[in-house]
Specification:
Radius of gyration: 26 Å
Bound molecules: 4-O-methyl-alpha-D-glucopyranuronic acid
Strand content: 5-15%
Number of strands: 21
Shape: globular
Distance between the termini: 83 Å
Low-confidence stretches: 11-16, 703-716
Oligomer: single chain
Largest sheet: 8 strands, parallel, barrel
Amino acid sequence: MALLCLALLVAICPMCAGETGAEGWLRHNDLKTGSLPTLVAAVGSSNVVRTAANELAHALGNRPKAEGVAAQLPAKDAFVLGTWKDILALFPDLPAARLPAGDGFWLRTVRSHGAKYWLVIGRTDRGVLYGTFSLLARIAQQKDVTTLEDVQTPSAPIRWVSEWDNLDGSIERGYAGRSIFFDNGAVRTDLTRVAQYGRLLASIEINGCAINNVNASPRIVAPEFIPQLARIADAFRPWGIKLAVSVDMSSPMVVGGLKTFDPLDPQVAAWWQRTADEIYKQIPDFGGFVVKADSEDRSGPSQYGRTASDAANVIARALKPHHGILMYRAFVYNHHLDWRDMKADRARAAYDYFHPLDGKFEDNVVIQIKYGPIDFQVREPASPLFGAMPNTSQAIELQVTQEYTGQQRHLVFLAPMWKEILDFDEHVGTAVVGRRSSVVGKTPVKDIVSGKVWHQPLGGFNAVVNVGLDENWLAHPLAMANLYGYGRLAWNPNLSAEVISEEWARLTFGNNPQVVLTISKMLLSSWHIYESYTGPLGAGTLTDILGDHYGPGVESSERNGWGQWHRADEHGMGMDRTVATGTGFIGQYSPEVQKKYETLAACPDELLLFMHHVPYTYVLHSGKTVIQHIYDSHYDGAEQAAELVTQWQSVKGQIDDERYEDVLKRLRYQAGHAIVWRDAVVNWFFKTSGIRDEKGRVQAGSVWGQPALGCPVERS
Ligand code: GCV
């Protein structure tokens, strides 16, 4: 039995000076280790378990004093880390029934041979690593770990992140510097940051990373590129992260030199098989592929009259012998819609394309569905597609990179929004016809994507993160709460946003109660604040959708084929998506959900304009008219954005100056930009509707605070 022992040299690290944010939530500098053992024993020969032991030793002891292989368990208090089969050999009395499934872990304290042991047990070596990070997080939050008995099982097998990095080193929708993976058409020589990213990801139980843009360069799977990918896989491997890549459907032509990429052509199938075989030869633990096809000018099966299942299956069959998976994105829509057609609706697209294909996919295909039917907006309903594919594995796609939500220049903590989506009950328990129609009870999105509702073999989560070379990964120090929150929810979607924000604040800024309270409060209010000064009542973000998706651009959604319409004109606003008179989108939901959205009386205010077109004078459940809500929410939102600055100022001197000043600067900018948003939106609606603000703040004839050339005609 291999048993590696690391003895700790416990050094106390006071609040570290010069905080850069590079360590994220893994700073390990507020640990009270007095009553804990000073020995870490790693059992077995797994490199991942060794990684876990080293992490624990470095975190608790700053650096281990000595390393050595022992023949047997030392007869003194120790942390003992290992997989079940190795630990059972040392502790045969452990009850096997407690062992968690999947990558789960079991933390348990036991007494034996006159010593006390803190056992970290995984069914897999990943489980040992996750258990170790969980134990460390408890110690860092100053929780009592003198007695442990905790078993945790992940919600779903797929807990991935995606990076939209291009081979030239740029990142699509990335806001924190250039790629950590690529530069100048090749994989970087120095992959130190990749290994560090692997550590961060492992600490939140992420087990896969797709490293390149879904608008993929076919070169990513070219024979000369595969050895470069293998270097990235090597950097991730100690952290249990599987490498994945996004592939372009036309690769068999562009890279393989074939005359076609028709998924039903045997030569195409053979090319995918050869390519997969070669990848697995060099990267035996490769995770699989992500595919974006027939979307936003990407090539796809429709070019040959084939379906998404034809396309997915030809690649999935090539991966299957190697246990690889194919994540096929449901983000397929026509961006040349006719905006004059009141029945046209981009929101319908994913369901219309994929629902008829349910049950036609290989069992290693996972349909990756964006949380809402449009595109990462500040407020969308949960996609109806989650409730419509009982015979297909699914994953939810979230966005940590804040494309439409302030691009890491605005503080927007997204866990509360993700919670609403994950908890949303699709009510498909009894509505589904087919071989899995027996499901009863609640069917929230989180239980559908985990595979629980319809007993799917696969399923889970994939979030677009887009970390960059910026030392603190995501540019805004507080944006890291989104990456942390994503991992925590993928592991356990039943956690509350409150618990997650508090954990993150403690781990990132220390345990001072006032600091923790202030930061948690700021995080938890930030999504609503951003929504208030940007997009009202489910109408979308009202951002500049034709440019960089940042800053106000109310007009940009209209009169073009992109289908992000809010249909605001001089009379009213909103998309009529009802079954009765609109696009019929609401009919894609189960009857129970339809009841919630189809009538004005039942539709919740926050999604009103997503589901209905109403006059500006329509009175909301809140008692306000739509137009007054737009005015009030934008003024309130901008005011609250300014209050974020004041709240942050209350932690001055209680955290390090570096991060304090960095965040302060960003919050001040946000408060200013919130005013820009407010004025642009309220003036546009005043000018368009001619209805005055009952509080008199929106000035007739004034746009951007300047007298306008043409004054709107005021109506009341
Ligand atoms: C990678 C949105 C983004 C695109 C992105 C696309 C997608 O439209 O603006 O940059 O492309 O979504 O998710 O594929």
